[in-house]
Amino acid sequence: MTWLVAFPLWIALWAVSSLPRASRQRGLVDQAKQLAAILGIGLYILNAGYGCQGTFTPLKAYHFLSRTLGNESLEPRLTTTGNRFVTSALSSIPVPLPADYVRGADLQLADFQAGKQSYLLGHWSPRGWWSYYLVGLAIKIPVGTSGLASLAALQGYCVPSTRTVQPFARIPERQWGSLRSRVVDQLSLLAPPVTLLVCASLQTGFSRHFRYVLPALPFAFIWISQVGRALTHCASWRSLSPTIICKWSAALRRMAERKKSRCSRQKGM
Fold first, then answer.
1. What is the mean pLDDT of residues 123-131?
2. Would you state the pLDDT for residue 266?
3. Are 158 and 239 in contact (CB under 8 A)?
4. CA 165 to CA 216: how far, in whole Å?
5. Which of 138, 167, 193, 253 is deepest in the core (most CB within 10 A)?
6. Whole-angstrom distance, CA of residue 46 vs CA of residue 68
7. 268: exposed, middle or buried (C-beta count within 10 Å: 0-12, 13-18, 19+)?
8. Least-confidence region, from 13-22, 132-141, 159-168, 190-199
9. Is residue 93 over pLDDT 50?
10. Which of 172-176, 210-214, 238-242 has maximum average pLDDT?
11. Residue 23 reports pLDDT greater than 60
12. Secondary structure (H, E, C), the chain
C-alpha cells in the first residue's frame, strides 16, 4: 500500500528526465506510451490480486472513516462515516482500484489520525515521532551497509586524479549531457526511497512496524552498489575501501552469530 506513491512518482521522474529535452527528442510520444503501459500494468496487477472486486466504483459510493477522505468534523474513533466528495465534481469519477483496497487505505489513514501508544528508545507516547523510521534505519541497518552508503554519498570520490577543472571554463555540451544523465540516474534511484521515507515519517499518529519503510531498501542497495566502480576505476587505496568495509561487516556478523550460538548453548545447559 505504501507504493501507491509510485504512480505519481514515475510520472514526475519521467517529466524531469524527458520533458526538458522535448524539442530535441523525437521519441517523446513513444516514451509517454511506454509510461502509460507501465502504469496500466501496475494497476492491472493490483486489481487482479483482489479479483477486480469493486473496481471502478464511483467515488460517491464510498463511506470513509478518516477525516481526510470523509469529513473534517469526524471524530477519530472509527464510529462515524462520511464522504467529502459527494457534492463535488469528482463524485461520479470511477476509482480504478479495488473497493477493499480503497477502504483499507482509508482505515489505515483513520488509524494514524486517531493515534496510538508508541514506543521509542525507552519512552512511551500517545502519538508517534517523525524521526521513528530514521532511528530505526540507524539501528537496524548493519554498520557495513551504512559505511558503503557513506562511500556512495561522497561526490567525486572516484574521479581520476589526472582530471583538472578550470573554474571559469565553458563546459562542452557533451559533458553537460553526460552530467545531466548521471544526475537523472541518481535521482531515479534515490527519489523512490526518499519519497516513501518522507511519507511514512509524516504519519505521526503512531509509530510502529518498521516494515512500512522496508520497500525503500532495494533502491538504496542498488544506489549503494555504485561503490563497486572503485574496484576498477580508482586508485589502489580508494579501491580497498569497499572491500575493507564488506569484510568488516562480514566479521561482525560472524561474531554476532557465534555470540548468539554461545548464549543458546548456555541456556540449554
1. 93
2. 77
3. no
4. 36
5. 193
6. 23
7. exposed
8. 159-168
9. yes
10. 210-214
11. no
12. CHHHHHHHHHHHHHHHHHHHHHHHCCCHHHHHHHHHHHHHHHHHHHHHHCCCCCCCEEHHHCCECCCCCCCCCCCCCCCCCECCCCCCCCCCCEECCCHHHHHHHHHHHHHHHHCCCEEECCEEECCCCCCHHHHHHHHHCCHHHHHHHHHHHCCCCCCCCCCCCCCCCCCCHHHHHHHHHHHHHHHHHHHHHHHHHHHHHHCCCCCCCHHHHHHHHHHHHHHHHHHHHHHHHCCHHHHHHHHHHHHHHHHHHHHHHHHHHHHHHHHHC
**8 A C-beta contact, residue 82 and residue 64:** yes
% of the chain exceeding 90 in pLDDT: 34
- Compute the average pLDDT of residues 13-18: 84
Contact 91, 58 (CB under 8 A): yes
Any residues with CB less than 8 A from the CB of 133 and at least 6 apart, and which? 197, 200, 201, 207, 210, 212, 213
Closest to 32 (Cα-Cα) out of 47, 15, 57, 16: 15
Q: Give the HSE-up count for residue 111: Cα atoms under 13 Å, Cβ half-sphere.
A: 12
